Amino acid sequence: LKDSPCLPTEPLVISLKRADGLKVGFNLNNEDESSYILTFTLPTEGQYLISAHFGAEQLPGFPYSISAIPDLTKITIEQTSSKYQVNKLVSFAVGTSEAGIDQLEAHVYDPENHET
User: Fold this and answer.
1) Which regions of 1-116 does DSSP assign to beta strands (E)?
2) How far apart are CA 55 and CA 51, in angstroms?
3) pLDDT, tens digit, for every residue of 72-102?
């Protein structure tokens, strides 16, 4: 929120909400007379809306929409072997509990990169 037109008699009002209306907590730090830093952690995947007002006047560029995506680095794969027999059932576990909530898709490719 850099170089916002500051009206000294009106407070800066910020809100951060998920699309379903859930309010999200945040920190707002006044860096100097014309700059603010907004920091937050989004609790789940989805769309969020940030609103900013001085008094009743909405700031230009707001409301601002942002998206939260799952943390793909938290997906784990547990397998029993690195080599499997042809025409034998293969199973392994895919752990997504720490990655967030979203739809998981799995695709299997042969050595020539053809989906099987």
Assistant:
1) 12-18, 26-32, 35-40, 46-54, 57-58, 64-68, 76-78, 93-95
2) 12
3) 787 888 877 778 888 888 778 888 777 766 6
This prediction's pTM = 0.56
- Alpha-carbon span 42 to 69, nearest angstrom: 9
Q: How far is CA 76 from the centre of its chain?
A: 19
Q: How far apart are CA 82 and CA 80, in angstroms?
A: 7
45 burial type by CB count under 10 A (0-12 exposed, 13-18 middle, 19+ buried): middle
Pair of tokens at residue 25:
């907590």
CA–CA gap between residue 69 and residue 1 (Å, rounded): 23
The pair of three-digit structure tokens given for residue 38, joined into one six-digit string: 């907004």
Cα(91)–Cα(1) distance, integer angstroms: 50
